[in-house]
């Protein structure tokens, strides 16, 4: 592990110390957990945004050679046919 020195406000230190005590962990472990949690949240958001960008990049790219269809308007009927209902 690497050693790092950080500065906290009194309120941050008080809340972090109380949380660490409640979980029976060191303040250093509490800081590591907070960092891991925040980074995981940011990774999840960026991967979600990447999936949205990829989906939007496909929109309108592919056309049916037979021309436009009414699938969007008649999707329930098409699904019923596809599932034999």
Short descriptors:
85 residues; elongated; 3 helices; single chain; mainly alpha
Low-confidence parts lasting 5 or more residues at pLDDT below 50? none
Number of discrete helical segments: 3
Average per-residue pLDDT, rounded, comes to 87
What value does the Rg take, in angstroms? 26 Å
Largest sheet: none
Kindly, what is the distance between the CA atoms of the first and last residues, rounded to a whole number of angstroms? 61 Å
Taken in chain order, the helices and strands follow as HHH
Form type:
elongated
Q: Structural class of the secondary structure composition? A: mainly alpha
Helix content: 55-70%
- Beta strands, count: 0
Strand fraction: under 5%
How is this structure best described in words?
There is one protein chain. The chain is an all-alpha fold and 85 residues long. The protein has a domain at 7-62. Helix content is 64%, strand content 0%. The protein is built from three helices and no strands. The chain has helices spanning 10-23, 27-58, 75-82. Helix 1 crosses helix 2. The radius of gyration is 26 Å and the shape is elongated.
Summarize the SSE layout with pairings.
Blueprint: H1 10-23, H2 27-58, H3 75-82
Concise synopsis of the structure shown:
The chain has 85 residues and is mainly alpha-helical. 64% of the residues lie in helices and 0% in strands.
